[in-house]
Every structure is written in structure tokens, then in C-alpha cells.
Amino acid sequence: QVQLVESGGGLVQPGGSLRLSCAASGFTFSIYAMRWYRQAPGKERELVAYISTVSSITGYADSVKGRFTITRDNPKNTVYLQMDSLKPEDTAVYYCNTQRSGTQHWGQGTQVTVSS
To answer: Helices in 1-116 by DSSP H: which ranges?
Structure first.
């Protein structure tokens, strides 16, 4: 079955960087778009970034544009989220996502905390 496993979260000071990884299995990774979402306490889950199958198309939420970069390595079945210039408002649980045949698939999430 589809499995998405996120890693790379942690505690970082404002202005710092983290790189999140999402290892995918159970499906043909290279033919599906991938997304990163986040959910902060008391807030709805929001789309942060997406990437097309061959990385030719990427998109970002306005709040992270210019600071976050989404990439993918199809041979490794992995999608990444490089997060730079982190702000306290980036604190959230970050989730990897894909959609197959109308079904949403989610990882378990990884906590990112930006605090001094």
C-alpha cells in the first residue's frame, strides 16, 4: 500500500534552515505530483508547496515563496522541502501528500518548531 514517511523536522532558531524529506513507497512515485502541507495548532491544514512529476512545475504558498524550495528525486522515491530563513510562524506539523485515483494519501507528519 501507499506509504509516505516524513523526516527532518526539529527545533530551529529564527533565520535558520531545515530540510524535510518524504520517502514514498507502494506506488509508482515518478508519475504522481507531490505536495507538502502544514498544520499549525488551532489552524487548518494548508498547502505549502507542490511539484509535478518531472519537476518542471512547482508552486508555493505566498507565505513561503522565496524561502522554501521543493524538489524530488525520482530514482530515490523521495521528495524534499528545503526551508530557509525560517520564521516562528512556520511552526507546524509538516505533511507529505499525494493523490491517486481520487484518494488522498498522507504521511504521519514531522514537527517543525521555530523558536529562540
So the answer is: none
CA-nearest of 16, 72, 82 to 48 is 82
Question: From the first residue on, what is the mean pLDDT of each consecutive set of 10 residues in the chain (116 residues)?
Answer: 96 98 95 97 96 88 98 96 98 97 95 97
d(C-alpha 3, C-alpha 69), whole Å: 23
Tell me, what's the pLDDT at 76? 97
Give, in order, the Cα–Cα distances in Å from 18 to each of 10, 45, 86, 91.
8, 20, 8, 12
Burial 68-105 (b: 16+ CB within 10 A, else e): bbbebeeeebbbbbebeebeeebbbbbbbbbeeeeeeb
Distance CA 109, CA 93 (A): 6
